[in-house]
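Recall that a protein's primary structure is simply its ordered list of amino acids. Everything else, from secondary elements to tertiary packing, is in principle encoded there. The following example makes that idea concrete.
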Amino acid sequence: MDEREFENTNDNPAEEDVQSQNDQENTTESPDFLLAVLIYDRTAANKTAAKKWLMKNCPPQVSAEEMEVLLEGIDAQKPLEHLKNVDVVNGSKDRYYYDGTIMTREFAKIDALIEDKDILSTIASVTRSDCKLYPRPTEFSKLTGYPFRFTPDEVEGAAARMTINKDYSDIGVVEASNGEKAFYSDRYMKKVYALSLLEYSEVESKLSP
C-alpha cells in the first residue's frame, strides 16, 4: 500500500482549521441567515413582521437592496436556503412575514389584520372562522383579550358599523340573558343556534354544580 495515501496534503493544518471556521462564519452571517433570525425572533414573540418593519429594523450587515431581493424571493416562493421556513400573508396595508414552523397561517392572518388596524375585517374573519370550524359564536369578551385587545367601545362601534356595510351583511349579534354579546355569521350558523350556544356558555354552564 502506498504510504502517501495517509500523508497530510496540507502543509499547515492550522491554516485549514482557520479557513473552515471562516467558511462557517460566512455561512451563518449571510444576509438570508440574518433575515431568517430576525423573522424567527419576531414570530417567537407572537408577531408577524411587516415589510415596513423589516426594512426599518434591517440588520446592519444587510443592505436595503439585499433585503428587498431576499423578500422578493420569499414572495415568489423562491427563498434562499435559510428562508425556506418563512411564509407571507398579504394585508391591506403591507405584507407580513412569519416563520411557519412556530406560527400557524390562521394566526398570522389575524395578526396581519390587527397590524393593519382593520377592526371590521378582523372581527368578521374571526367570527366566520369560529362559526365554521368549532362551531361557536365569537363573544365580545374574546375580542377584548389577547391577541386583539380591542376596547369594549371599539367592539360595540364595530358591531354598529357592520350593520351598514354590505361586506359584512352575514355578520350579526346575539345577546344572552345576562347581557353578554357575541358575533355570528349566518353563512355558517343560524341566529337561534348562535343564541343557544351563547346562552349555554354564559349562563347555563355557570349554573351547573
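The radius of gyration is 26 Å. Confidence is low (pLDDT under 50) at residues 1-10, 20-26.
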